[in-house]
Please model this.
Amino acid sequence: MSPSVPPAPPLRLALAQSSGTPGDVRANLDALDALAARAASSGAHLLVAPELFLSGYAPEHRSPDAGVAGSRSTPDAPPLAALALEEAEAAAELGALARRHGLAVLAGYPERAGSATYNSALLVGPDGAPLAAYRKTHLYGPYERAVFTAGDRAVVQAELRGVRLGVLICYDVEFPENVRAHADAGTEVLLVPTALLAPYDFVARSLVPVRAFESQLHIAYVNRTGPEGGFDFVGLSCLAAPDGTAPARAGAGPELLLAEADPALLAASRAANPYLADRRTDLYR
Model:
């Protein structure tokens, strides 16, 4: 019998709760560069930024009374699609930043692919090489469905320092099937850049830790913060642990939250809470 492989050492995460400067990709790259410097100086291995961080969630300055269904543009605030980057462009920018600071980076951005625009997140390694590219599969509300095309890959993964990472975006994590698919595929730390709006703070406070517990993995949930056009982002970024707690939790304002995802804790939790092994899949497939 071959000896069991010990768990990888803890992965140190930096969760960048910020809305940056909506409508200004260069300013947001500069802000991410400064955050990466802070994260690296704190010993982080991975920096995670929120949903659509490079562009802003609604950079066209949506009317406060328009809700999620309407929008209006001003000359100094181009529509989100006009700020979209091709994957190669995003990879070049994020790769240079990651190499400069020697840590992995995940950031959300609008991806231009032919005539389509996707709500995407790109993960690059500390050497600047792309590790994973994910397109949001569950679009939230009329605004997103009007702007974006939905992705069609449920599970996107990468390895970093011996830890298997997975990526979802915001609304995706609110579907238990998505998170369970990652658990079945061996994801240990699920990275979720998000743009959670008021009054749905219960998603960050309660639902995300429950998802981590029921599927036995870590979830790094990284939100935008403050008002933007007609939206109001609640912050409350967290690292949710497989025991259902959130050992690291941000407040409502901008914050660089440092936390550790420990594969040894995950292994112990999966042994104590064998949901994945005890399922009666013959009953519900």
